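Input (Transmembrane serine protease 4):
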Amino acid sequence: LLQSPNLRSLKVYLDYHYFFCKQPLKLVSLQQVCDGHVDCLQGEDEANCPQWVPEGPPTARVSKDRSILQVLNSNTGAWSCVCHDHFNPALAKAACEQMGYRRYAAASSPDVPDPFPPSSRKCLSGLVVSLFCSKDCGESIRTPRVLGGSPAAIESWPWQVSLQYRREHICGGSIIDPRWVLTAAHCFKNNPVIKSWRVKAGSDLLSGTATLAVEKVFLAEVTPASPKDNDIALVKLQSPVHVSDNRKPICLPYFDEELEPGTSLWVIGWGYTQEHGKLSETLQQAEVQLIDNKSCNLAGYHGEVTEKMLCAGLPQGGVDTCQGDSGGPLQFAGRHWQVVGIVSWGQGCGTPSTPGVYTSVRAYLNWIYAVRRVSVDSAALSPGFRGAVGKGQGPLGGSVRELSQLLQDATLPPGSSRPSKLAIASLPLSPSSRSSETCRDTSLPSPQASLSVPPRSAVSAPTAAGKWISSHGR
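Output:
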């Protein structure tokens, strides 16, 4: 029946503007899908929508210097390094799982040159745990060579993907794990039907090649007070990416990775190569510089750039991300490539006073860890944009309590009736070491309870009530 051109055109029109309720058959406007209100009799219009996840309390992290594992004492709010004395593969796996990884790649024991402070919790070996949860991330077989909007090879950026809605490129994204893609939240504002999303990986061309189905989309929790913050999303794939030379994950930044203004960074995407232009069929790459937020605000953004954002561009302008680049990575070449930012929003493209604005990935590491921890149990998430994981509930709360108990058991003095499962101590390194603060207990403020969302092409962000606040994205 659909051989008729007129009928095919009608189907395309209906698919782009309406959602089909199954029983009874009913058409619902796409604007009514994932709005928190059930319009289909069986509720399928709210059944598989992007879901909000709050940040959740941090529990474990690794440092830039030697990837030293630190665990948070929930009672004192202090971070402590983990002594190697009683560490084992099971604990390594547990620590990696707290950061959202399903396995660990390696664990070693760096020397601590200074003696321990007098304490009943001495680390007899004088060794702390160096933990690597992700293997071979941030590695490419080609090195980018040319500045400013030049064609790119996917082998240089094997983590870059195209997020496509109904076969149309909407945003870029970064593979951070074979099952996970990091992107911008505003990409999903007008495109809430999960089954209509596909992820295209392994090619520097927009056309051709197979795509991967999306299982779930997770957004950072939002507040109307700061609509341009929290422009971050995680896409879980139905099946993992097959890792190869043109399909690899990029590394997340370290929690203590601080970049100086002027640091060289790279951006990539299929977005417009000039303002009011059109999408590029071939992946483009450009080198930019980190701009400090104070200068960025003074130049043209009047305080809109927050501490959860980064600015990047060139002083003279001319090189920038643009429409269609949203969700793609802002990349830093450390020991391995890291995704330090997500293309979010900006005014114009390539203008000197208004450089590109990016979500700071470092500001959302705890959120990324929380999403990957809790997503294994969909029962902990409510359907629709109103969905959220309660703090201390479900698998997240259980995992946090379990690790916290391990920490409490570990800090017991010798001779206690309970076994010491995990040896934790404050291990000050030598003053000459770059990470002299790495193993000292440091006070930690309470985790932020509320986050929010924005964009980079005329789109909007969801509020806690399931509505969207107007904003401008790429």
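Confidence is low (pLDDT under 50) at residues 112-120, 377-401, 407-438, 440-472.
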